[in-house]
Amino acid sequence: MAKPNKPEQVPDTGHEWDGIRELTNPIPRWWMISFHASWIFCVVYLLLYPSIPLLHESTKGLLGWTQIKEFKEAVAENDAVKAPFLKKVAQMSGQELLDDAGMRNFADSSAKAIFGDNCAACHGSGGQGAPGLFPNLADDAWLYGGDFDTIVETITDGREGDMPAHKGELPDAEINLLADFVVAAAEGKATPKGLIHFNEAGCAGCHGEDAKGGAINELGSGAANLTDGIWRFGGSKDEVLRTIRYGVNQEDVPNTRIAIMPAFGEKLTPESIKMLAVKVHELGGGK
Ligand code: HEC
Ligand code: HEC
């Protein structure tokens, strides 16, 4: 680069403002290089990538690059990595999946996102449920059963607990005694007389002769265990009275408890449901 001469020696353009003369020094070379590099870059970029907005869409660019294409490529890459694992999930039985640490891990982590998208709204992100509304999946108490195949069945077909309303069917005094029994049973203070009552009133047909619930007695009705102190709807005497009076999921009964687990058989693939079952099985400590 030529050394700038002293200002007095440099010819000027004849322009002068308030004693400031415009000299004829050339623009520095570094500046010229960056200037040309910039516009060349712009032109190349305009040609290669979508850039100039037209009436309906922009020019497409010679590379045909789009954000959506890039995203799809990333998804396809991810799918390709997962495909052999998903194939294994489809082929393995529930027990094999649970016994294989690697596959169990894969299922568990894949199910995390599926659970978040489909289940967490009701059961909570950690499966902890919501008192009175949605059952806790992270404890060891099951309505329908915590073995792998039963969990798959629950998710695929959904569940709808069915307990008849007893108001009008049983005298109020009888309902009152039964509620006392249920509250006592949950505290481990069930009396033999109360249990006889419970059986005579027809409660045992679903909740089991020992009131320990349908799943545990393999009655399969989803009837809750009434002796474990874990409440699906509520354990105060008023809440228990309400459940006995108005039942669960009874059509046209105001105040009935609503307990509907939607079916996911149409919405999720069998592989997704299996992986969810692994996760739910792990959450509940396994059965
Ligand atoms: C709209 C709310 C809702 C959504 C969404 C939902 N559930 Fe449920 N789920 C319920 C209700 C309510 C019950 C209890 C049904 C009953 O009491 O009869 C239940 C019961 C269950 C049970 C049975 C628990 C037991 O003790 O036997 C399992 C397992 C389960 N859900 C898993 C899932 C999974 C996995 C998903 C996501 C694919 C899911 N649920 C999505 C509401 C929901
Ligand atoms: C036809 C079957 C059936 C009969 C009969 C039945 N129940 Fe139930 N009961 C259920 C089911 C199913 C549930 C669980 C509902 C759910 O979570 O989906 C339930 C839930 C309950 C609950 C709520 C428990 C909790 O954790 O909040 C109480 C209390 C109860 N039953 C008491 C009784 C009593 C007392 C009788 C007899 C008068 C009786 N049930 C008769 C099926 C039955």
CATH topology of the domain at 81-160 and 264-283: Cytochrome Bc1 Complex, Chain D, domain 2
Strand order of the largest sheet: 1-2
Sheet with the most strands? Answer: 2 strands, antiparallel
Ranges where pLDDT stays below 50 over 5 or more residues in a row are: none
| Coarse shape | elongated
Radius of gyration: 36 Å
Beta strand count: 4
Bound molecule types: heme C
Q: Report the CATH architecture of the domain at 81-160 and 264-283.
A: Orthogonal Bundle
Task: Lay out the secondary structure.
Layout: E1 12-17, E2 20-23, H1 29-48, H2 67-91, H3 94-99, H4 101-118, H5 120-123, H6 148-157, E3 159-160, H7 172-186, H8 192-200, H9 204-207, H10 237-246, E4 260-261, H11 270-283
Antiparallel strand pairs: 1-2, 3-4
The chain binds heme C (2 copies).
Residues 143, 161-164, 166, 178, 182, 201-203, 205-207, 221-224, 226, 231-234, 240, 243-244, 248, 259 line the site of one heme C.
Write up this protein:
The chain has 287 residues and is mainly alpha-helical. Among the domains are: 81-160 and 264-283, Cytochrome c-like domain (Cytochrome Bc1 Complex, Chain D, domain 2, Orthogonal Bundle); 172-258, Orthogonal Bundle (Cytochrome Bc1 Complex, Chain D, domain 2), CATH 1.10.760.10. The chain contains 11 helices and 4 strands; from the N terminus they run ββααααααβααααβα. The protein has helices spanning 29-48, 67-91, 94-99, 101-118, 120-123, 148-157, 172-186, 192-200, 204-207, 237-246, 270-283, and strands at 12-17, 20-23, 159-160, 260-261. The strands form 2 sheets. Strands 1-2 form a two-stranded antiparallel ribbon. The chain is elongated, with a radius of gyration of 36 Å. The site of one heme C has 28 residues, from α7, α9 and α10. One heme C binds at residues 118-119, 121-123, 134-135, 137, 142-145, 151, 154-155, 159-161, 222, 259-262, 264, 276, 280.
